[in-house]
Amino acid sequence: MPQLPPFFEIAPEIGHALENYAPIVALETTVITHGLPIPENITLAANMEAEVRKTGAIPATIGVLDGKVCVGMTAAQLETLARTSNPRKLSVRDFGMALVAGESGGTTVAGTLLVAEHAGIRVFATGGIGGVHRGSGFDISADLPQLASSPVVVVCAGAKAILDLPATLEYLETVGVPVVGYGTDEFPAFYARSSGLPLTMCADTPQEVARIAKAHWAMGNRSALLLTVPAPTESALPYAEIQVAIDQALAEAEAKHIQGQAVTPFLLQRVSEISGGESLQANLALLLNNAHVAAQVAKALTE
Ligand code: PSU
Ligand code: MN
User: Fold this and answer.
1) Ligand 1 pocket at CB < 6 A
2) Which of 191, 190, 171, 169 shows the shortest CA–CA distance to 180?
3) Whose CA is nearest to atom 10 of ligand 1?
4) pLDDT tens digits, one per residue of 92-105
5) Which whole number is the average pLDDT over 61-76?
6) Which of the four pLDDT bands, split at 50, 70 and 90, describes residue 2?
7) Is residue 241 among the annotated active site residues?
8) Mean pLDDT computed over 161-186
9) pLDDT at 1
10) In the predicted model, what is the mean pLDDT of residues 110-137?
């Protein structure tokens, strides 16, 4: 195991798995602290871990509790985090302050990538990555630059549909992050299976993904590989339908002058309310599906 700073707390199971090169899947916690309502967040956290185990890998949920960076969390720790009032949303810039002040919070895609890379975990499952926000002047998620510098396979359903998807893809191209469609040659649009935006790379099996990732890193690249998996058909929403809810939520965010880290949680919650919970169901289903695919990729990487 690599030498880690003292505020890291590696769960014994994860420490053991790292020493034995067992397949591990990192899971983020901003989706729990800021992305989903209680109690769906607690159930989802447990279900994602169960999905990873069922597929033969070990889940390492990553989050910050009382100033400790947890890699692998117990059910009790997860519940504590989910019930923390005013948890910090931890992107890469936020760790120093939170650790010094002994705070608790959920790690974003960027924050989780930083921790996973440090710990030596090579696969990470999330819902949708952050990206370039629409028409907002200059709101670009820190997820994008972090994807450029952490060599991890990130399994997602594309970027969140509330974003400017073409601009997000352009950014990823600029910083050298391969975007691979899983069984598709289109960029998935989170709640919707397709966006109409073509991808130049696609893979159909976990083994293929593992081979592409190894070749990508063998070339000297330090960037992530973004594996984009369309939401399961049963729960996916038509793009045009969810677009109506997204447009309304965006207009409200602007009218209320929502800014900075609050933008994404506000939009996700409003889209869920406006769609009568339909988007929430789609969100939960795609998170579980991504955990399943990530576990398969983690296994393939160790073979
Ligand atoms: N995907 C979801 N729910 C979420 C997020 C992603 O289904 O809550 C979180 C991720 O943690 C992502 C973050 O990193 O939103 C992006 O926030 P921002 O746009 O402020 O960078
Ligand atoms: Mn932002």
Assistant:
1) 28, 30-31, 34-35, 108-110, 126-128, 130, 141-143, 160, 261, 264, 268, 283
2) 169
3) 108
4) 999 999 999 999 99
5) 98
6) low
7) no
8) 97
9) 65
10) 94
- Report yes or no: 165 and 201 within 8 Å, Cβ to Cβ: no
DSSP string, the chain: -----TTEEE-HHHHHHHHTT--EEEE-SHIIIIIS-TTHHHHHHHHHHHHHHHTT-EEEEEEEETTEEEES--HHHHHHHHH-SS-EEE-GGGHHHHHHHT--EEE-HHHHHHHHHHHT--EEE-S-B--BBTTSSS-B-THHHHHTT---EEEESBB-TTB-HHHHHHHHHHTT--EEEES-SB--BTTBS--S-B-SEEE-SHHHHHHHHHHHHHTT--S-EEEE-PPPTTT---HHHHHHHHHHHHHHHHHTT--GGGHHHHHHHHHHHHTTTHHHHHHHHHHHHHHHHHHHHHHHHH-
189, β-bridge pairs: 158, 192
pLDDT at 282: 95
Query: Could you tell me the pTM of the whole model?
Result: 0.97
User: Could you tell me which of 60, 264, 253 has the C-alpha nearest to residue 161?
Assistant: 264
Nearest CA to ligand 1 atom 16: 130
Residue list, CB under 5 A from ion ligand 2: 139
Mutate to test the pocket of ligand 1, among 264, 266, 284, 290 (most ligand atoms within 8 A of CB): 264
Select which of 9, 28, 103, 214 is catalytic. 28
Please name the amino acid found at residue 112: T
Closest atom of ligand 1 relative to the 128 alpha carbon: 1
Catalytic residue flag (residue 28)? yes
Average pLDDT of 155-176?
96
Average model confidence (pLDDT) for the chain? 96
